[in-house]
Design brief:
Chains A, B: One of its GO terms (molecular function) is methyltransferase activity. Two copies of one chain form a homodimer. By secondary structure, the first copy, chain A, is an alpha+beta fold. Chain A has helices spanning about 140-145, 170-180, 185-195, 200-205, 240-244, and strands at about 5, 10-15, 35-40, 55-65, 75, 85-90, 100-115, 115-125, 130-140, 165, 210-215, 220-225, 230-235. The first copy, chain A, folds into two domains: about 10-145, Beta Barrel (Elongation Factor Tu (Ef-tu), domain 3), CATH 2.40.30; about 165-244, YaeB-like fold. The first copy, chain A, contains five helices and 13 strands. In chain A, strand 11 and strand 12 (about 220-225) form a beta hairpin. Chains A and B meet through strand 1, strand 4, strand 6, strand 7 and strand 9 of A and strand 1, strand 4, strand 6, strand 7 and strand 9 of B.
Amino acid sequence: MSSPLVFEPIAIIHSGYKEKFGIPRQPGLAVSMTATVELLPPYNSADAVRGLEQCSHIWLLFIFSACVDKGWSPLVRPPRLGGNEKLGVFASRSPFRPNPIGLSPVKLEGIRCEGSQVFLDVSGADLLDQTPIVDIKPYLPYSDSLPQAEYDIAPQIDMLKLPVQFSATAQAALERHSNRLKQPLQQQIEEVLRCDPRPAYHKQKAQQRTYGIRLHDLNIRWEVNAQAILVSQIDINPDDDLKA
Amino acid sequence: MSSPLVFEPIAIIHSGYKEKFGIPRQPGLAVSMTATVELLPPYNSADAVRGLEQCSHIWLLFIFSACVDKGWSPLVRPPRLGGNEKLGVFASRSPFRPNPIGLSPVKLEGIRCEGSQVFLDVSGADLLDQTPIVDIKPYLPYSDSLPQAEYDIAPQIDMLKLPVQFSATAQAALERHSNRLKQPLQQQIEEVLRCDPRPAYHKQKAQQRTYGIRLHDLNIRWEVNAQAILVSQIDINPDDDLKA
C-alpha cells in the first residue's frame, strides 16, 4: 500500500466548547454538555446509521483540527504530570501527534433524521466546536471495555472537590442565559470547572488569578481560592456578540 | 480546515495472520497469537514510546489496507448477523467504511529498542500481517472502559464449544512446526477455530466441508462436525514455500 492515506470528514461536531482552554482533558467528565454530530454529504443518510440506536455509546474518531500543521515531537509534557515530566507521544493522548487523530467514547443520546440531514445527539464529548469527525463506530463492551487495564501514570482524574459559587451578578446572568440557550448551564459550568482547567504550575503556586472559559456564546470568569471555585461574571463573548 | 487530511503509517505490524479469512472478528479473542509492531522512521525513537511500558494495554489505530480502494456503502451485512440483516456502516465495525480506519485494543507484552529499531510486542491483535498503523495510544481505563455500555446487536461472542481434535498427521506436523516457529501453535489454532471463521450460511446448513486458514507460513485444513472441530492437515503454504 504505497498510495497516500487521504481521509475526509464524514461529519462535524457542534459543541458548546468554543476554545481549547477549559475542555475536560478526557471524555465523559462533563456529562451535561451535549453536542450534536452532523453527518456531511454523501454520508448523511439514515441508512448509514441504521441500527445505531441500539448502541448506548459510540466512538468518535476525530481530527485535532486546531493542532494540524503544528507538527509533533517524540516527547510531550502532559498537563496531568505537572508539565514537567516528559512522556513519549505514543504513551500520551496529546493532540500533537504524527497523525492528529483523536479518540473519544461518548454517550449516544439520540438520532434525528430530518429530511436529508442526520444528527447524532451525544453527551460527554470533549471536542471543540466544529471538529471534523472521520469515523463513527459502535462501542462494543465485550472487546472495548477492559476494566483490568492499567496505566499508572493516569490512574484517575483529580477533580476539584471545592464547591462552585456564583456571585450575585453571575447568578442573575446564569438564569438569563440558561433560559435563552436552553442549556443546563449551571451544571455544565460546575462540571467543567471541577475538572480544573488551570495550568499545573498555577495550581501549585495557588495564585489568586481570574480565568476565563468560553462555553456556548458566553465568556465565564472564575477564580479558585482555598474555600471555593468562584464564578464572578458571565457575559456574552464580544466576538460572538459581533457575529450575532 | 479545508486542506485534505493526509496520514502516513507510523508503524507496521508483523503478525501470524496472513490472510483475512480466519482472523478473529474482534481483538482479544485469540490471546496466544502475538504480533510485533515495528515503528517506522522517523517515528522509531525510544523517546516516542517513553513511559509506554507502564501501560498494560494500548490502542492500535490502523488502516484496513486490504479494503482501501474497495469503497464503502451506507449498509453492510455483518457476518455475526448471519449475513442477511443489513446494518448502517457506522453501526458496524465493518472494514468497508468511508475512512477505512480500524481500532483495536491489544495487550502490550513488551517494548524492545534495538539500535535505531523500536518494536512493541503485543497479544490479542486481530490485524492482518503488514497492516499499516497510523497511531498508538495508551488505553486509559477510567475513560475508555465503559462496562455499562450496551449494544444489543453484539452482546457477546458465540465461540464454538466443540473440542479441537488433530488427525495423526496433523499432530505430527503440529509438533514439528511449533518447534520450528517457536510459537504455541496448538493454542493459536484452537483459539482461532473456536471463533468459527465459517461464513454464517455454512454454519446454518452444517455442511461437511474442508476449510483452510493460513497462520504464519502454514496452511491449516480443518472441518467441523457435530462432535468436534477436526484439524486434518498442517502444511507449509506453497506460496510461502516458494519464497523460502
